[in-house]
Amino acid sequence: MSTLRLKVARRVAEADGICSYELVSADGAALPPFTAGAHVDVHVGEGIVRQYSLCNAPHETHRYLIGVLREPASRGGSSAMHERIAEGAELDVSVPRNHFGLADGPHHSVLFAGGIGITPLLAMAEHLHAKGLPFTLHYSVRSAARAAFRGRLEQAPFASRVRLHIDEEGTGLDVAAALSDCPAGTHVYVCGPAGYIDHVLATARSLGWSDDRLHREYFGAAPAVAEEGGAFDVRIASSGTTYTIPAGRTVVQVLADHGIDVPVSCEQGVCGTCLTRVLEGIPEHRDLYQTEEEQAANDHFTPCCSRAKSALLVLDL
């Protein structure tokens, strides 16, 4: 995937533990266009690549704006961004990709953001407003101090469409109420912690919403204790070579040991960067990226975390 060399033109503390970074071309050139919901891969350094959603208006061509939450259990990405990346720093950044785009059509949209999940939904709100399409944005945070981009939302031309829910102030989100008076054909878009997303989607389904109108993007896998699973084999279709994946190691790790590079980013089955076609065998899906229908097809899996139900998987590599 092609990358851009971008400079941090501005860094702003948006809330407790959250900073925004404005990325621009070092020579002032226009940046590749993006659509609402898109993200970029940021090469933080030392082999660390992390994905961050673009949260500026999609019509802007002079900058990319990302928001980064410092995770207490950071695996190196968010801590590096907060500790080492200052204004003036240069970063390798991928061209934008979008796995969380807005559905086509002039329908009403309800946007649900939990915490740092506000970032892609900011771009969606900017786009929907610019197109004159109806929407409501529900933004949930635990405390007022954690409400990133609050000033921007309060001053936005679509501020009347924003509902801020602050748990500590007793104004937490009531999903059922938020969906109660939506017109026919409304689509839901939700991003945030896994538990928040699951709650929004489960509530919508309980109210009769069909999955084709429910769109989500996870930022991280929910903490869970999962069985490692036994050993299995993977065969590379192009070479016919077979490798054994032992318990406690991932497909990506074993293949890397043998010089086979599978692009990865989150390594949690969230981002879809490593999604690989399965030609034979049945995967044991452990990702949050694919829908249930996509997982049931068993023709793709995420080798960063998923394993196998069958003794062998043949991969289109």
What does this 3D model show about the protein?
- The longest helix has 13 residues, at 118-130.
- With 317 residues, this protein is of the alpha/beta class.
- It folds into three domains: 3-94, Elongation Factor Tu (Ef-tu), domain 3; 109-218, Rossmann fold (3-Layer(aba) Sandwich), CATH 3.40.50; 232-315, Ubiquitin-like (UB roll) (Roll), CATH 3.10.20.
- The protein contains seven helices and 18 strands.
- α2 (118-130) links the parallel β7 and β8.
- It is globular.
- The strands form four sheets. Strands 4-3-6-1-2-5 form a six-stranded antiparallel β-sheet, covered by helices on one side.
- One of its GO terms (molecular function) is 2 iron, 2 sulfur cluster binding.
- This is Oxidoreductase.
- Residues 1-103 form the FAD-binding FR-type domain.
- Keywords: 2Fe-2S, Flavoprotein, Iron, Iron-sulfur, Metal-binding, Oxidoreductase.
